[in-house]
Amino acid sequence: MQEFVELIQAAFFGKENNQRSQAEQQLVNLKHQLPNEFFQNCSSVFISTQLDSQTRVAAGTLLQRCISYEQGWLTIGLDVKRKIKDELLSQLISSDQNIKKSAASCLSGICAIELPRQEWPEIISILVQNTRHESIEIKKAATITLGYICEALKNQKQSIDKTESEKVLYGICMGLQGEKQIRLISIRALKDSLQFMDQVLIQQQVRDHVTKLLVESAISQDSEIRLAALECLIDYTKSIFDYLEQYITVLWSCTQESIFHKDFAIVTMEIWQSIASEINERQTVSNRTNLGFRKTQKEALQLVAQQLIQAVLQNLLISDEDEEDDEEQGIQEAAYKAASSISEALGNICYQLYLRFVENTLQSQEWQNRKASLLAFSSMVETADVLELFQFSNSAIGEFIKKLADSHKQVKYAAGRVITRIAENYPLVILKHQFADDYINQFSQFLQGNNKLTKYLLWTLVNLTEAFRDDTNNQFCKYYDFLITQFATVIGRQDFQDGSLLDIAWVGIINCLQCIKEPQTIKKYLSAFGQQMVAVYSQIGWQKEANISGLLSAIHICFLRLVVLGDQCDIQLMNNFYSLIVDYFKKIQTVTQDGFYAISAIAQYSKINFKSLLDDFMQNYLEIGLQKKLEIETFKGAILCLADIARSLQFKEFSKYLKILEYLIACVNDSQVNRVAKIALFICIADIVLIAEHEAEPYFQAIWQLVKSGFTASIYFTQNKDMAQLEYYENLNDALLNCYLCMLHAYNLNKIPYIPLYQTIPDFCMFIQATSDKSLTPTVEYIRLSVTCLLDCVSYYKQVQGQENMSQKLLTSPLLISLLDMLKQYSNQSENQQLIMLANDLFKSFQLPQYLN
């Protein structure tokens, strides 16, 4: 035992690095070789009153780490577990506060592992019972432990069943009525427990009681308790959001004083910003899925809107004279964010309040008022799109521009901010203004500076270029060359501290290039970029890196633009720029994502002519990129470049490289390959299969197993609904669906049914059923692609002898009918109309009534 104590002391407190490292390694070896003995020794040292507190806490820290790390707790026997639990529980009433907290931390780690597995259920009952104990120390210890358990469950994203959740909440509520320290711990515990309280808080009686206790803390005269309760309300209001109308006036009552208090204003406005943001997010989901949106929450917010908005606008007036950053994380910035979210949530209900504030403060003698006026309007503009605001922007833009020359720098910055937002949301206010040329010239002059205003006005011009894409009449083409020149002056400057402004300027150039309609103009810029690519090698550091990235992106866009404009392949242009990119690879002695994207665009432009470069590129450059599996961006760039090349060539030119499918399939199965890169791999495999058609048949089973595994992973996600991974699974689903569609088209060449693929349809339907559920907010594009695949299945396989009924069953299945119903809601889109017509034709071919007349 003494030897173990000495090991802990050496590992935690040894003066020499070697001494600590050796002791740590010995402890690791003990843990792996004799886990029961190791855990028991940790616990024995921890509870030993013969040892000093420092050593005991170190033993507790080691125990806590080993319990949680790789769930080491699961490696030891039941008898040892029981003994350690009892020993830890005994330390919850220790007079040493550090020992008490360490014991609670260890117990929480055990609970985070065992409670979700329905093990050790009695612990919650024990702790909850002790929250009512006569002894203040026992009561405090129980509350601390409950709090740590909630925190551990939250950190490990674990849940417990409803019965245990109710017990935990009861214990927390007891603590919310206790003395200060217990109350603070209970508020934190409530905040951490909300992720597994959904089923408990649907009970109104419970919800009313918890809200009452939290509101009482939110108006406490004790500043620590009040602040903690207000912070908790940010998350709590999300948990009770579906019942918001029942509590909105109570929430306003308990926050209306705090919103004006300098110590509580920020967190209070975050509560209301959070409520408004939740309304906005649900409205966005509704718009995206056509699910419908419960307006009760919005109507609830309207009940307190006038007082709330006035308070938020009042806080916009609070500004620090010496504050260098115009976007400081203070009261004013919190007010700005809240004003933005509330404006978006309530729309024209609140605009008049905002506009009246703007009009009353814009010409004020006080610089704080002028700044607040600009911020108030900016908060509206970036979240709304209505005629009223467009008209006000049109009439006020001149005044806003005048404020760029204000006597106070913070007003200038605020003016830049609002002009940027107007350019982003209402670009035509500037572009169609009678003084548009003058305004754009004025903005350009600020590009010579080197401060926040330069950044704002640079973004203003870039935002204007975004509007050029919608310029079908080419009415803004007079600005293209001028703005590209202005952006180029920014890129050529030597006095910036980093590449952020250069990156923004390159975005502006690329936006302009995407709007040019004359191939010769594009080629003129390509020539200039080629020359600059050579010259930029003399630059150093971040400037060189930013400009090479920008140049390669610009070259990429230019060649894609030539494709869109239908320009015939210029062989010399193809060769020159291919040589330029590979020379760059040679100079840096490696390959890059931007370089691959430029090559992919050259291939798309060159089409069949790229065959003369194919061998050199595949063997000397792409192969290097495909080996960089751990460099995610480069690897992904290489994969997508390969996909574009495959699509650009005919199969006979690409056929010698068909075996690359083996490597791509192996990469998908490689656990070291990043999951985002695997999405790119699915895209690439699909494109190669599509051009290879029946030649890819030897790879069918291997590819299908990959796709089927993807289906399984995605279905598992839908069942667990881990929203943190939603974006990834949406992208994966798109890639899987595209891959399956390509397989359908490739393997059913000339509409001759390919039976092995026919046998996969049930698995495919299960995948579509799971991933098209409305609760997952599938996009219209995803529904359209799903319907396309299902109709293709019906079309291809109705010819399979003896299986006509199966095709008819698929055509009339609730799955396909529900998807068609969803598409019908967007029948104004031509692609959707075509699919509905195809469905009707298939219904007719089976002599069934049309789906939709």
Describe it.
Its main location: cytoplasm. One of its GO terms (cellular component) is cytoplasm. InterPro entries: IMB1_TNPO1-like_TPR, Importin-beta_N, Importin_beta. Keywords: Cytoplasm, Protein transport, Repeat, Transport. With about 850 residues, this protein is mainly α. The model has no long low-confidence stretch (mean pLDDT about 90). Helix 12 (about 205-220) packs parallel to helix 14, helix 25 runs parallel beside helix 27 (about 500-515) and helix 35 runs antiparallel to helix 36 (about 675-690). The chain contains 44 helices and no strands.
List the helices and strands and how they pair.
Layout: H1 2-13, H2 17-33, H3 35-47, H4 53-68, H5 78-90, H6 97-114, H7 122-130, H8 136-155, H9 162-176, H10 180-193, H11 198-201, H12 204-218, H13 223-239, H14 244-255, H15 265-289, H16 296-303, H17 305-316, H18 331-346, H19 348-361, H20 367-381, H21 387-402, H22 409-425, H23 427-431, H24 436-445, H25 452-467, H26 480-491, H27 500-513, H28 519-535, H29 541-564, H30 571-588, H31 593-606, H32 611-627, H33 632-648, H34 651-654, H35 660-669, H36 675-692, H37 700-720, H38 726-747, H39 755-758, H40 761-771, H41 780-797, H42 804-811, H43 814-824, H44 830-845
Helix pairs in contact: 1-2, 1-4, 2-3, 3-4, 3-5, 4-6, 6-8, 7-8, 7-9, 8-9, 8-10, 9-10, 10-13, 12-13, 12-14, 13-15, 14-16, 15-18, 17-18, 17-19, 18-20, 19-20, 20-22, 21-22, 22-25, 25-27, 26-27, 27-29, 28-29, 29-31, 30-31, 31-33, 32-33, 33-36, 35-36, 36-38, 37-38, 37-40, 38-41, 41-42, ...
